[in-house]
Known about the structure:
mainly beta, Methylamine Dehydrogenase, Chain H, 2 domains, eight-stranded mixed β-sheet, four-stranded antiparallel β-sheet, about 0% helix, about 45% strand, disordered N terminus, repeat, WD40/YVTN_repeat-like_dom_sf, PROPPIN
Amino acid sequence: MEKEEEKGFFDQKEHEVLSIALSNSFIALGTPNGYKIYTLNPIKLIKDKDMGGGIRHIGFYNQDKIIWFVGGGNLPAVPENEFRLWDNHNDEELCKVVAESKINSIKIKSNVLAVVLSEKTVFHNLPLSDKYKTFETATNPYGVIAISPLEGFTTAAYLGEEPGTLIVYDYAKEELQAMIEGNSDEEYYITALELNSVGSILACATSEGCTVHLYDTKDGTKLRDYTRGSAPSTINFISFQLDDTRLLISSEAGTIHIFMNDITQEGQEGQPVNDISVFSFLGPLIPYLGKIGSYCKFRTPELYKIAMMPSEGSLIVLSSTGKLYLSNINVEEGGEAILDTKKTLTDCLLVQKNIYLPKNN
């Protein structure tokens, strides 16, 4: 099979944004000329760094003080096979990793750095040393990788060597935890991966484009399927939120779906309820009737977006065009989230009036 190029949703000819990142307090945009950092509340541009070229991947390592990036675009700021850890306050490089080929994605936390290439995933210890582990993988055009976010938990998930296969791996012990076998068709891609905070549940979306599968990372047992819709659309973002009680997913169809994670919330009163058919009991016989839909949705026109929930009643969405959407959620009934504020971040100047997030419901 001919290798497929990295899948992306940022077109430098059309947009001023090449990459996006969102934390609890800050926003980062990679641009054709460098990067921009914003505070989230108030929404305010605090750094506009000209790097003399494009930033294709960007993220936070230590709030806004230390960031990381990989070059990209028509004129990359740094080579596309180099990862840089960068002191944003002092404008200096802290360290770098030079990969053997173009970097498709990065995952990082305090003690580990995962570098994803087209057909390899490399785990580096942090602080950087000569010790690292390289794993051959199936072709990985979406650059999928997952690492348990909470400190003290060391579970990772990456592609296996066979198409559609996932490996669950303890990177501290360097031990295999589970192997999850999927569709072996070479045209079948995994498009998004995410682990919950402690690494006990793995969420996975595939090029089938309708369903997110949840697995137990101890043994690879499937726990749940959540369905975003019946028409296929590439799912490109998954995130556990609010202490893993919610699951956010986004697809090229333009909709953010919010699910109750009923694996952890099952049987609890006073919580929103996912959309489940009254005929779900027939699911074993007629699979369509057993599908679990989201309890809340929010629609925007962009193909790619990331999101988080500061509270049960609020949703923040950052799109690939640099637009920030703030919306309110009916905590009891769900339904459609209501837009409160929309802001185009690329219009922000270093000196501007502060814009504050609406108060939590």
